[in-house]
Amino acid sequence: MRYKTIILELLHQRPQVHEQLRKDRKLLSTMERYARELKTSQEAWKQVLNQAKPGSDQNQIASEALEMALKEFQDRLRSESPRDGSETLFLDAAMLFIRHPTPRA
After folding, report:
1. Which of 25, 36, 29, 26 is nearest to 1 (CA)?
2. pLDDT, tens digit (0-9, with 9 covering 90-100), for 30-39
3. By CB atoms within 10 Å of each CB, which of 33, 64, 76, 103 scores lowest?
């Protein structure tokens, strides 16, 4: 549930995107999809951090992993933002990028 709250807050920070999704009746499905992506990313980061820091506190690992996943998600959204201000292209590009993340080392 907290993933949806986080994603909803990020969408609220982009009012034009939020409003367009709401008008198109895609807000809920997009929020749910992004929340799943954020959760998947956090899980992947937890695995990486558990390997890098064996024996670390699992709550601390989960917190760090969420921070990293969230930063990664926000960076992707920002990096895919179009120069002409077209929010529809921004959202489409962000979704494409999130569906096909770059491999981690």
Report:
1. 36
2. 899 999 999 9
3. 103
